[in-house]
Write a structure and sequence with these properties.
The chain is α/β, with parallel strands linked by helices and 438 residues long. The protein has 2 domains: 3-87 and 203-427, Adenylosuccinate Synthetase, subunit A, domain 3 (Adenylosuccinate Synthetase, Chain A, domain 3); 103-198, Adenylosuccinate Synthetase, subunit A, domain 2 (Orthogonal Bundle). It is 29% helix and 20% strand. The chain has a 10-stranded mixed beta sheet with strand order 9-7-5-2-10-1-11-16-20-21, sandwiched between helices. Strands 15, 17, 18 and 19 form a 4-stranded mixed beta sheet that branches. Strand 17 (339-347) and strand 18 (353-354) form a beta hairpin. The longest helix has 15 residues, at 182-196. The chain starts with a strand and ends in a 15-residue tail after the last strand. Residues 11-13, 38-40, 125-128, 130, 132-133, 222-223, 227, 236, 238-239, 272-273 line the site of inosinic acid.
Length: 438
């Protein structure tokens, strides 16, 4: 102990990579527990930008244990490419460990993801097309190929044949695609296996041993609470559980191993892909916030939908994740606005009002935000290093958010680089907080 889980408290892209990178500095181990290369972390360090999709953010800290847990779905091509790139940039990757039980994204998963979205037409989910959903579907159907299968040609081939068998009808448009050739696919995956072999192990045991040693373990979530397959805006969700409870399942630890849960939220809202977004903005203001915040997907480059901060949804995220701390990122993007709106309630069809996040899909689709208007600020925040440096209006805004959600704010992001951050008074004493400099 202690174990700290970092989760997205919105629709993903909250800036979890940067927060994990900060906490990773003091952590002994960093563990990814769900999702795959649908995620994208951008980390700015020493003037260099890193875009990681599968690798735990802690990999940039040499010698730390960096685990890809059993709950992650791995595209081995993406993982080996990331390893090559890190090595090319002289990053020590010796701390990486990959769960032998993690499932593999196969070429046919990507094909099925494309075909599924094409079939849905206008109703498409807007997936990242990385094969995430079909891979988790095979896991649940017990047709998945796992990392450990890469180490045995006979087993690998047999499992690929079994996995492909019920899919041939859906894969008809790809019948001539060379990636579906059984021998070629087996050979490719065996090659990945050889390259990854030295990292493959029982990661659950490794992480439990670390916790027994009283080490600081950070569990790094991908996506966000509202994309959770059980608790998000289904069916416009990802196919895993980005909520904190999934850290236990996806890393192989118990609920008592988690001491703190940090929820990361932007100071406003964004969403990529389809689905309800009650505080969505359009027009000039949305364009301004999108440009200022660089709101384009790390993985797909798609422009993100932009909106005001939704406290109904954030309060919900705080409850389903048992958040103990909030990290608010990108506060600087709001600088220069005369007025800032913050959503505290939804209005549904026929005037119904909702103080809590509605469970029903149709209700949510018609929900629009009702707002409290707060004064903006014009000052540049980039030099602020403590809460007292912030303009009064910014402090008021943050206090309103923390009070409404009932969770203290531990960290405030005021720019992209790792030093553009404020550790708050409330963070003192938290396991993940910066050591107090006296
Ligand atoms: P999938 O995870 O690729 O199946 O996509 C399902 C939904 O989750 C789509 O709306 C995606 O845009 C969204 N999504 C998946 N990963 C991320 C992420 O890392 N950030 C934001 N949205 C994501």
């Amino acid at each position: 102990m202690p174990g700290i889980v970092i989760v997205g408290a919105q629709w993903g892209d909250e800036g979890k990579g940067k927060i994990t990178d900060l906490l990773a500095e003091r952590a002994d181990a960093i563990v990814r527990f769900q999702g795959g290369n649908n995620a994208g972390h951008t980390i700015v360090r020493d003037g260099q930008t890193w875009k990681l999709h599968l690798m735990p953010s802690g990999i940039l800290h040499p010698g730390k244990l960096c685990v890809i847990g059993n709950g992650v779905v791995i595209d081995p091509k993406v993982l080996t490419d990331e390893l090559d790139e890190l090595r090319r940039r002289r990053v020590d990757t010796s701390g990486l460990r990959i769960s032998a039980n993690a499932h593999l994204i196969m070429p046919y998963h990507m094909m099925l993801d494309h075909a599924g979205e094409a079939k849905l037409g206008k109703l498409q989910i807007g997936t990242t097309r990385r094969g995430i959903g079909p891979c988790y579907a095979d896991k649940a159907a017990r047709l998945g190929i796992r990392v450990q299968d890469l180490l045995d040609e006979k087993i690998l081939k047999k499992k690929i044949v079994a996995a492909l068998e019920p899919k041939w009808h859906s894969l008809r448009p790809f019948a001539r695609d060379p990636r579906l050739d059984l021998q070629a696919m087996t050979d490719d995956y065996l090659t990945y296996g050889h390259r990854l072999e030295r990292y493959i192990t029982d990661t659950s045991r490794l992480v439990l041993d670390k916790l027994d040693e009283d080490a600081l373990v950070v569990f790094e979530g991908a996506q966000g609470a509202l994309l959770d397959i059980d608790h998000g805006t289904y069916p416009f969700v990802t196919s895993s559980n980005p909520v904190a409870g999934a850290a236990c399942i996806g890393a192989g630890v118990g609920p008592k191993d988690i001491d703190e849960v940090w929820g990361v939220t932007k100071a406003y809202g964004t969403r990529v892909g389809s689905g309800p977004f009650p505080t969505e903005l359009e027009g000039e203001l949305a364009d301004l916030m999108r440009e200022r915040g660089g709101e384009y997907g790390t993985t797909t480059g798609r422009p993100r939908r932009v909106g005001w901060l939704d406290l109904v949804a954030l309060h919900y995220a705080a409850r389903i994740n048992s958040l103990t701390a909030l990290a608010v990122t990108k506060l600087d993007v709001l600088s220069g606005l005369d007025q800032i709106s913050v959503c505290t309630r939804y209005r549904g069809a026929e005037g119904a009002e909702f103080d809590y996040f509605p469970y029903h899909q149709s209700v949510l689709h018609h929900a629009v935000g009702e707002y409290v208007e707060m004064p903006g600020w014009s000052e540049d925040l980039s030099e602020c290093r403590s809460e007292s440096d912030l303009p009064a209006a910014a402090r008021e805004y943050l206090a309103f958010v923390a009070d409404f959600v009932g969770v203290p704010i531990a960290l405030i992001g005021i720019g992209p680089s790792r030093d553009e951050i404020i550790w708050t008074e409330a963070s003192r004493g938290m396991a993940g907080a910066a050591p107090v400099v006296s």
